[in-house]
Amino acid sequence: xxxxxxxxxxxxxxxxxxxxxxxxxxxxxxxxxxxxxxxxxxxxxxxxxxxxxxxxxxxxxxxxxxxxxxxxxxxxxxxxxxxxxxxxxxxxxxxxxxxxxxxxxxxxxxxxxxxxxxxxxxxxxxxxxxxxxxxxxxxxxxxxxxxxxxxxxxxxxxxxxxxxxxxxxxxxxxxxxxxxxxxxxxxxxxxxxxxxxxxxxxxxxxxxxxxxxxxxxxxxxxxxxxxxxxxxxxxxxxxxxxx
Length: 243
Prior knowledge:
- Helices cover 44% and strands 19% of the residues.
- The protein has 243 residues and is an alpha/beta fold.
- It folds into two domains: 5-65 and 152-188, no CATH class; 67-150 and 202-228, Bacterial extracellular solute-binding protein, family 7 (D-Maltodextrin-Binding Protein, domain 2), CATH 3.40.190.170.
- Strand 4, helix 4 (92-100) and strand 5 (104-107) form a beta-alpha-beta unit.
- Helix 4 crosses helix 9.
């Protein structure tokens, strides 16, 4: 209860609710509409509730956009990633995803990526538009391919200790405020994302939009199958949200 509210990526939260690790799998969501249909449904609600045993109260999901690759080298297709040393967050799913794409996964702290790109220790990294700009990675890695390989939502949450001390009226107010904040956050994200993309393009970023995702999706299917048993319930619910 030392910190009462926070907003955090669902990636690290898999330590407290294993099923949240499914969000790190590549291409489990077809697009933003599919993702929000799942998050706003019973599957997403169950994931929020699953944190309570770890003394967290999940209140709402926020977007962090889709992730893409950016490189020192030209990247026009999936073939161009082969052999490239790409920085990843150190977890098994990301390491396996890079291997499936033919790249060399290089685990590295986020704060080290800027200098690693400048010195050529790594060839590439991946993130979203705002992070690409605020990290200044666009200054070195100007080759962007918008493959949208992951959509990892964030979560607004609070201490369960604090939550349990609140009156029922206050709980209802906080839940409504959290729900209302989602629309604001999504609108703000869209604006920030557009501004970041415009800045990157103005600074000389060479942007390739992926017209056909099937080769990418096919390449990482073995990764999804490897972890399907671990996240079976969640993946089934995500598949159902396509209908």
